[in-house]
Request: fold
Amino acid sequence: MTGRAALLLGMLLSAPGPLLGQSLFNAAGLGSPSEPLDGRTRALGGVGIGLRGSAVLGSDPAAAAFFTLPAGYLTAQPSWVEFERSDRAEEGTFRGTRFPALGIAYPTVHSLVATLAFESFLDQRYEASDPSTITLDGNPVSVQDDFVSRGGVSQLRLGLARRLGRRAAVGLSAARYTGSLTRRVQRTFHEGVDTTSVGAFQTGGFWGYSGASVTGGASLFLGNVAHLAGSLTWSGALDATASDDSDGASRSYDIPLQLRLGATAVLAPGLSLSAGLARADWSGVDDDLRAGASAGVVSSYGFGVELSRASILGRSAPLRLGYRKTDLPFGLAGGKPTETAWTGGLGLNLSQVGELVRAGVDLALERGERSDSALSEKFWRGTLTVRVAGF
Amino acid sequence: MAMLLGLAVLGSAACAERTPTSVDPDLFPGKPTSVAVSLSWEEFGSNLKVFGGFGDVSELGEGMVARSFGGVLDARTLVRFTVLPTSASVTDATGTSVTDTLLSLQGGRVVAFMDTTGSVVSGPVTLELGALRQRWHRASATWSMAVDTAGEQRPWTEPGAGPLERLATAVWDPSRGDSVVFFLDSTAVKLFRDTSEVARGALLGMLTPGARLKVDDVALRATVRASRADTLLELTSSWEALTFLYTPEAGAPGDGLRVGGVPAWRTTLDLAVPARLTGPPSLCAAVGCPVELTSGRVNYAALVLSSRSTDPAFRPSDSLGVDVRAVYDPSALPKSPLGAALIGGYGKMMGPGLFGAGEGADVEIPITNFVRAILQADTVAGFPPPHSLAILSAVEPSSLAFASFWGVGTPRAPRLKLIVTTSHSVELP
Reply:
């Protein structure tokens, strides 16, 4: 087994799951979007489309057309979050690491590049605790209620991309929703009863997700100075099927059409500016949500600059800076929450032969804030993408 | 491979994560509701029976002495000592340790050790020590019978292991220690060490009325002179058989529950758990009634018994441990096989005061898993879950005293207490 094969196997085995909770906004509606963006896109404040170069991105299927060798990648994303409720009744911290994207690209015949990716989509992982005192048999009894929501929606995506001459590329991918959600309420008894004799109460359910989506995209090079790209994602219903022993019922949700546009302009040799925007109208899912939850139109934009001629220890190490603003589709208090972040990072080509990068990493670090009228979160978010090619 | 190491580090970070957690009650999809439900005997119980005769006094491995305790109870302790050594290691004139087989008995003493917390005594009492004149059987001896086995029934010449050949008396003052000493001459000691005597044994009785003493241990300590005249030795013999006789035996309870004693009493009953609840109002207001009673909704189930004053002669002087076991074949009672202890250990401990001045107190005996099994109705090895329970001493037998509870047909009849929690179903957003 070659070292690169071992590395690829390690990447596959290291991924413990597509989603681990990183926000209390996961409690709102269907959860918070968990975009499967790589470290380069994050560092440039991107929305997942319009960057020059090859990439396996569910939001930009045409970007895979530029792979000339088989490639694989894995993205990891640790976060450190401080939160505070707007009524100042609670504040705290949490941290977590998720693996939002894992995939491979494989050039085939007729300039076609096939891609297979496992991506995160919605993060629904959070917990809530509520200690209180109830009266049993006329006596006060301390109880602790805990709610656990564990899981989320992922996508298994299969795509094809192809260059059209030297100036254009197109891509098409089909994804199947997967993943699961466990929601469980538990009550435990404390002071006021014999805790060795009084057992806990637990109820809840397990749902498996299914459904499908299709994304089509295209990109266009305007000489060596600009690059334009766009994509459109149509999704069928997201079906949540309850297991036989679940208390709750199965549900189905309409997932909106998602539109993305992006562009990159070369400002000077080794210096480029990229920008992108995305839009999706989630209000159609309102009818599917239970009372108290609502969704709205989500817009995102971001921009960044990349200094590609930078180097570290003689190796190419592009520097990146950016800014990003994203609406979240579901809020905790009826309003539309927004996430903003200043971003930065670098790439490091660990093994390069000429223009061919055989192994590299992209590192991004974001400092941002998510907030609505009920909750505010400040976060540091790191993103590390490891990529290999030519195996 | 350095990158692989980096991935491992990230993986470790993932393992140390803390899930986003809030105490905001608004993040709950629905809070549970808990209520306590008390079912009357008519709503859950039937077929209550009391059985006696489990175990015998000799299994206790302890003695008891009493005289007119509670106005009626007399008890005497029988003890047979192990064989005294016939040689001892002594130091001779040269300072060498040698085995001396020429020991001459000088006298001795019998020492009895009392359980001060398990005894009921208000001041100094006078005890007597006698020698038995009749062959007796440790496992079957009773107040009236010296031997009561399948092959032989032999009564005492006089009930109570009499007539007694008194050898010594002694006063025990409980405020001055837990032991009482009976001094004996060599002739008396020989009565206890003569292994050719089938009646060999000592009898411990009480002369002072109104007390009941629990005897934890009895030992014979003989004083012997070695072949060197200037050397006195003390040889100790422990007991090889220790039991006690008592009279009168407790009669069967008329309308109550009884647990414990020796031979031990057990109470059995059948349980029926309702399939749904239609109250209390707080439960119906929260989740709507009727509420299906499932095993997952039962947090706690307990038999609630009301303690009753026990006959003073058999009233506990120390805590009693009570347990419950499933009755696998009620039709075979009192010989039905029983399941494992539902409480375990020393059982549910009940203080002695509950069965005297503190009568009428509610005592809860947890049977949560038993009730859950009934509600689940899962068969085990093809058998449905048992619906009958036996209430018995956790360690059976454990003492002469027993616990009494108010029975069916009284205002304090047994009840079934349930703590039930339910909630609306947990749905998706």
Q: What stands out?
A: Chain B touches chain A through 48 residues (CB under 8 Å). Helices of chain B lie at 2-15, 41-44, 186-193, 281-287, 368-376. The mean pLDDT of chain B is 89.
